Amino acid sequence: MEPVPSEIASKPKRVAVKRLTKKFLNTSVLPDSFRGVFKFTEFNKMQSEAFSSIYESNENCIISSPTGSGKTVLFELAILRLIKETNNDSNNTKIIYIAPTKSLCYEMYKNWSPSFVNLSVGMLTSDTSFLETEKAKKCNIIITTPEKWDLLTRRWSDYSRLFELVKLVLVDEIHTLKERRGATLEVILTRMNTMCQDIRFIALSATVPNIEDVALWLKTNNELPANILSFDESYRQVQLTKHVYGYSFNCKNDFQKDAIYNSKLGEIIEKHADNRPVLIFCPTRASTVSTAKFLKHNHLSSRRGNQKRINTSVSDKILYECMQQGIAFHHAGISLEDRSIVENEFLTGSINILCSTSTLAVGVNLPAYLVIIKGTKSWNSSEVQEYSDLDVLQMIGRAGRPQFETHGCAVIMTDTKMKQTYDNLIHGTEVLESSLHLNLIEHLAAETSLRTVYSIETAVNWLRNTFFYVRFGKNPAAYHEVNRYVSFHSVEDSQINQFCQYLLDALVKAKIIELRNGIYNPTAYGNAMTRHYISFESMKQFINAEKFSSLHGVLNLLSNSEEFSVIRVRHNEKRLFKEINLSPLLKYPFLTEKKQSQIIDKINQKVSLLIQYELGGLEFPSYEGATKLHQTLVQDKFLVFRHCFRLLKCMVDTFIEKNDGISLKNTLLLLRSLNGHCWENTPMVLRQLKTIGLVSVRKLIRHGITNLEDMGNLTDTQIEYYLNLKIGSGMKIKSDISLLPCLNIRVKLEHCRRDNEEIWLTFKVEISAEFKSSIWHGQHLSLDIETEKSSGELVDFRRLQLNKLQSPRGFKILTNISSKLEKIEFSIHCQEIAGLGKTVVYSSDHLATQSLTRTSHSNKDLNSLEKCLFQVTSSDEEAEKNM
Hints:
By secondary structure, the protein is of the alpha/beta class. 38% of the residues lie in helices and 19% in strands. GO terms for molecular function: 3'-5' DNA helicase activity; ATP binding; hydrolase activity; nucleic acid binding; zinc ion binding.
């Protein structure tokens, strides 16, 4: 057996911080140029004691401190230290701030942007557009999530200069390592620590008992464990009393449980609120309303005796009635104006009890004396789940108002079975474990593509640098998933070695990596999986997909991706999707053999219908009660589309590797449709133009305008007449159309010879484009050039950025056709715009039979065939034939 980490590494050092009794450090200890960073003149107790370790040292630091102790200031001190050390050299300084959620990233971005001292600040999350991403990469401080940074660092060779400049990594909420998403955080920190030189880590954590293990993992210069700064609850600015109440339930229905929690609220408020502001976190929007209504009818003491009637009007009638009793609710479903009024009234004290969803815990500063978490499960990604530890800690962090009092109270209401779990969490006694092993196979594939793993030995060596390795050595019983694949009969191989071997074998079997001469190398499939951030199960489906898939087949393959496993079909929306499924405008409905609607209860059905709902421009069902589901449908649709683009791009790369021209063609068509939010080859392509909606499309169809080319032939006046627009409005639409590129493709037969039963042809292909701008609607435009045979075989595929086509480009293609009737199709399309492309088709029956007979034995060049007939058609007409 290999030695465990504790046997081979020096022990982490807990820094003996200087305990200050009365006097705290003044910001005057900093240079004049740095003092303006802080809005105060004196650091608090925790910041003062941590000052020397953060600002006067370059060693890695792990800070364990309770919520509300002012930890963010330590990040800022670390940045100031780096500025001082580099002599304000902003051209060669990169700092990465990593937080587990987009909301935390945005909060920090608001605090630091547009610049921190003289350093520019940018943000990278899944919501960041391509243009914003390019801008953010150039900033000195990059605020990002683990997933976005993982995606970027998987392309290490492309951004090697950027990574060389990274000197400081700031990690917020590092205790999220225990959650499933924490594996990504663990991987990127391991990657940065092993591949970057002279890099410093400052990581903040909630209180955990084994913080030494984190320090043992994040070693300074890969040698000495990080320093540990540990602060207990006494360092909170507001002292907090915390309680966990467990309740037994005889019901399984979450709504019934919610009602039982409501019945307990009065007792909790009476016992802990002390007639001061109360913030109740509820699991759903509906629960915030029902909780407020319950308290209005059953807890009349919520109003203070000297409170005045609230005269401010809100649009929501129920909200207004509750507010008159000093009670309100707050969630994303009410209007922005109503939310602002509620927030202001709560801050001024007119509202004493506020019921909110957990989203209020981040971004909106509404502290209360008493915080109640009413149930520890909430709707998350369309299903009921326990709150994450981060969610709970952030909600608890709202308890206590520093400007009014020195004490606060937090209450967690949960199931009896979960009481001990939350007791451990709030008192910092739950041991932090790794979750890397749960999806290690995807990360091993990525490391193989990065060439950090190329053998079983390098795989194990890479794992030695992870937090998982530290914890597995100390507590292997916590990792039963690993033990399932380990044989205890062999004494030569370690358990880690066997686990890695099992995963590498699985990757080889799936054709994601291959073993050549004892070295593991990524296949084209593996590189695509890594580049596009695809799960192992989805990648296997793409690789094993049937050849020559139709558009319908491609849509089904996409809809069955594992990435959509978080989507749930709720009971109350089955009718909604049945109505959508029965729409005559739906391209591919789910029907029984008798042409009746199938029961819509599967994830892939819902995903497919959400995509088709958007692309077909379907109207939202109008049956009674449907409108209540509209916001949920929009959210689910956003979640689906967020995954679609990288999945389809990975499918494109997969079908290129498989030489599957038909599947590739239909995947590209679906990708263009998703980019344009409309089905290609339908009049819905007109919706891509600014100000053109469904109503306008119908008007244009009545006048015979069905595609972008038709629209481009109209005058300003015609557009205004057809759409009943004001004079001048047609010019704006015409201007939008004029920015569309005009694509051209020319094909010339240069050489032809016969070899037995095959005819070998050499074509010269020339592509060109006329365009005013290579950007349309904020997107950089790219071109896909595909050549395929009518048999389905892919002959050639190329991708080119439009801005690289300032002048025509040419290339040659050599291919063969049989003597039977066969066609070769050459096409060019703009990937970001549906309905914009050209196609050239060559057919073998255009060759003169006599000429072929005459040259069948001589193999002479057929120069006389250079002017062979070609058929130029719109891509729409030809694409329709192969669907």
